[in-house]
């Protein structure tokens, strides 16, 4: 990866390492070959192998395995995702580490570290659905599940 991805030091993520991508504004090309412009939108199918849980901007397809497979290391899982709605490359996002999640509405989930989960849930759960409904009243129904 390049300098635009956030590789945090061990002290910043102790006791578990953490990776998060930052593809805005034109940094997606450091992750995968793409036309890194808002004018070009694409669908994505991608596989990510990690020792730690992975979250990405697509729906998980449910394919996980412990097999080393092609280029895989023992003890890793293969995470597969599909983004069927065409998006600009700068919206691609990836996180891997000690992740926890909680529902914050009928169609929203917050993901963060386990220690921050309750605070993030408290901060967002009363307003997230209102934000989505306000956006839908201006443009069109929320396209992502």
Short overview:
The protein has three helices and nine strands, in the order βαββββββββαα.
Topology:
Blueprint (H helix, E strand, L loop, with lengths): L5 E2 L2 H4 L5 E2 L20 E10 L3 E3 L2 E2 L16 E12 L5 E3 L3 E6 L2 E5 L4 H8 L3 H11 L7
Antiparallel strand pairs: 1-2, 2-7, 3-6, 4-7, 5-6, 8-9
Q: Quaternary state, please?
A: single chain
Number of strands: 9
Looking at the overall shape, the CATH architecture of the largest domain is Sandwich
Summing up helix and strand content along with how strands pair, one would put the structural category as alpha+beta
Q: Could you list the spans in which at least 5 consecutive residues all have pLDDT below 50?
A: 1-5
Whole-number mean pLDDT: 82
Which percent band covers the strand fraction? 25-35%
**What's the gyration radius in Å?**
17 Å
Helix content: 10-25%
Distance between the termini: 29 Å
Number of helices: 3
The CATH topology of the largest domain is given as: Immunoglobulin-like
